[in-house]
Write the structure tokens for this entry.
Amino acid sequence: MDVNFSKISKILVIRLSSLGDVILTTPLLREIKSLYPHISLHFLVNENYKDVVINNPNLDKIYLYNKDKQIEFNTGFDLVIDLQNNRRSRNIVKTLTSPVVSFTKPQLDKFLLVNFKINRFKNIIPIPVRYASSIPGIEVKAPPEIFTGNINCELLNEVDKKITIGLAPGSRHFTKMWPEKYFLELSSKLVETGYKVVIFGGNSDIEIGARIAEKIDGVINLTNNNELLKTVECMKNCSAVVCNDSGMMHTATAARVPVVAIFGSTVKEFGFAPFSPESIVLENTGLSCRPCSHIGKEECPKKHFRCMIEITPEMVFNKLIKLLEPHD
């Protein structure tokens, strides 16, 4: 579909979930507003993820999705950009009677790679680039962003950023989680080397954060009850973040912090690697069983979990130190 932005005054962008996917829309929002500042840009998001965009200066209005409530839209959208493109979003789009462009998901390619190990991904295309390709003439390059408003991270105000490392040990799915004992070993090695370690995560990560902080002296546990804006502001006090393939990984890139990301059951071909030049992805490329899922599983189908177990704390530590080295 050709889009003449000079004749468009109001756009609705739809991305309901999840955390990482919503964060990865922000480069597109920034680029549209930069190129076409006259456009009133509206955004529809699940209320659980509103903090990603609540302070975004590129948006003129935000609508919160709740499956139990009807949304009252301002009428007259000249264009709807559906970046969710599932049953829920399509049902919403049907009520608007506006021209629509939809994000094309590589569902068949993902299915073939997961189930038959047939790799038709000729290039690794980041999701923000895929989002932008839905609209002719739009290109994105800079990392995502989350605006935190007046939030302050008092607990890290006095720490030296150069020696502060963030760890985000959580993930929604087991096969995307580097083992807890490895995060413990890495924390211990970092503290012994003179670094300050800070644990980040949402409400599902509070317990693992508490266990690591309890076992390693000097570790600061900043996991919280999904206070995303505070997490972003605190991450800015770190020189790097080590994390799994998770929403916290994308949160760190939105905080503009270098990232070491550990991939287990998923692969970069799906497009969800950190969208930042200051990032390193660690993955076990020597396994014929990877990827076993495009979103993660509750257990290793092969029962060995080698995709994560064979990525040792020493390997991660060395990659982290390399990432922290000054570049010309």
Q: What stands out?
A: The radius of gyration is 20 Å. The first strand starts at residue 10 and ends at 14. The chain has two domains: 5-133, 154-324. Residues 180-193 form the longest helix (14 residues).
